[in-house]
User: What shape does this take?
Amino acid sequence: MTRFDKILLGSFLAVWVWAAIAPKYRHDWLLENLLVFIFVPVIIFGGRYFKLSELSFALLTVFMITHVVGSHYTFAEVPFGYTLQAWTGASRNMYDRLVHFLFGLLLAYPFREIFLRVARVKGFWAYYFPFDICLSMSAAYEIIEWMAASIVNPQAGLAFLGTQGDIWDAQKDILWGGAGAAIAMVVIALINWRYDPNFARDLKESFRIRRVETPRGDSRLKQWFGPSSAGL
Assistant: This one.
């Protein structure tokens, strides 16, 4: 690990230790931290494998810190969320909305780096796929949140969901995550448009259909199963 990586990890651990001391609801803290226990090792070891940049590690660290802060108070009762509520004139604590927005805004760039290195996508798809996976993971988290809340005691489940009486809470959280990712990708696209001389060419090339050398779809089925599969 570089010195910068150690600073990021140390900063996260310091906040995590603070959040672990006398959280408002211990059961909710544990539920929220199940994802931390899973994803922090994935970020550390997966990030090294994918050779993520220091910027990506910094963005991931900031997001994980915001998540850990929410686990200490519960996302519906974070003090800064009430400040956001006053600023925006909202009828609820807005911290959970902020974290969902930051999920897309901060994680879209690391996902983009992974797509660029692993899938070697270019042009439009290098901006669309990070947005798409942030939106998909936002939806997947809402499903996991519902499943987890349904099997624990009611008080911990309600604190974990943090709907604050909004029946459309899950859909709005997904929307905020997608909005954050969209903004991140638009900003990166504008930067590349300004400084990358190949931006327009890559964008155009990404929509060009290349001649397929190997059969796909129904052609592959016919190859496997013969004329009897023609109706497929």
